Amino acid sequence: MRFNKAKCRVLHLSRGNPRFQYRLGGDMIKSSPAEMDLGVLVAWRWTGGTGLGATGFIHLLVDEKLDMSRQCALAAQKANHILGCIQRSVASRSREVILPLYSALVRPHLEYCVQLWSPQHKKDMELLERGVTEGYNGTIFAYGQTGSGKSFTMQGIVDPSTQKGIIPRAFEHIFESVQCAENAKFLVRASYLEIYNEDIRDLLGADTKQKLELKEHPEKGVYVKGLSLHTVHSVVQCERIMETGWRNRAVGYTLMNKDSSRSHSIFTVNMEIYTVDERGQDHLRAAKLNLVDLAGSERQSKTGATGERLKEATKINLSLSALGNVISALVDGRCKHIPYRDSKLTRLLQDSLGGNTKTLMVACLSPADNNYDESLSTLRYANRAKNIKNKPCINEDPKDALLREYQEEIKKLKAILAEQMSTNILS
């Protein structure tokens, strides 16, 4: 299938006489002084095969405060961007990429998961975060190329409050649930680590450069030996800890991002829930929420990384590749061996991928058309990840879990006994 022709025409929808003219792709753009909506008419044609052709009218949002001359100039820039996306899609010989692009742009409906009013935030983020107070493990991780907004999505900014990221919002949801809970006591502790050049470092420790070791416990699973835990009683305390750890993270300058994260970071909220049942017996549940900001995948040709930055990028890409291999193995279903041990990152996220954790992946994309290949790769990554099947369950104290198992067994035996007795009476 071969791309034959595409043209992009910007139209001004008004009845006034044309006053301004701009040229785009060989077509003249005309406009009137009136402040009306601007739109772009996009047409493309395929040859070879079905000979499919398609057109679409795409509304462009332009600042009404500007005069029409400037509005048309901005519209022309946006139209060029759209045309570039289509041409890149054609170059990749993927009709499936073009059609969603066209249909999505006709009636944009974009919701940001970090905005309080968005359906995604209410449906996914908030429910997952509040589930930790019930005893479920949770993980939220941001994935995407460098400079696509992962750190901003997770961290955000304090002022204005509407720009807070996922991590500070999680603090608010957790402590709201704690305050509303009845007949329960909570112990909340926080930790913050980073994986830099495949070395684990405590961002809240006395020596942030000290390398920590991974260990495995038969009941607790994988954990970091010597990682500091800090008891917190409020959202404010959590935010202070987050800011302290953030200042200790490894960042560096690249051509893609002047403050590029050079490490993966994991902020973990550990929670113990003590409850008393109707018979006065104590019960203990434990849960944790992992909030993960992954370093961005990089191409040396774009970032201009050399020396230490290039070494960092190599380690980052290797660990992200290991994460991709784990996801692929889990989705495949035929692999008996899941390569969790290929990197520190995948070992720490072992419970989050195919384990007992409620996991949510945030795919961060760059709007720039020159990042088309990386954006498509991120979407494919996310498409594979969504097919992983976890088995979330409440983390009970082993004694409580065993007791509940015995109680359920006794209940079943009583039901069987009652059924046999009723059968004997009837006979």
UniProtKB/TrEMBL annotation:
GO molecular function: ATP binding; microtubule binding; microtubule motor activity
Location of the Kinesin motor domain: 134-388
Gene Ontology BP terms: microtubule-based movement
Residues reported in the UniProt entry to bind ATP: G144, Q145, T146, G147, S148, G149, K150, S151
Keywords linked to the UniProt accession: ATP-binding, Coiled coil, Cytoplasm, Cytoskeleton, Microtubule, Motor protein, Nucleotide-binding
Subcellular location: Cytoplasm, Cytoskeleton
Pfam assignment, any one: Kinesin
Subcellular location, principal: cytoplasm
Top-level division of the source organism's lineage: Eukaryota
Gene Ontology CC: microtubule
General function of this protein: Dendrite-specific motor protein which, in association with the Apba1-containing complex (LIN-10-LIN-2-LIN-7 complex), transports vesicles containing N-methyl-D-aspartate (NMDA) receptor subunit NR2B along microtubules.
Protein name, per record: Kinesin-like protein
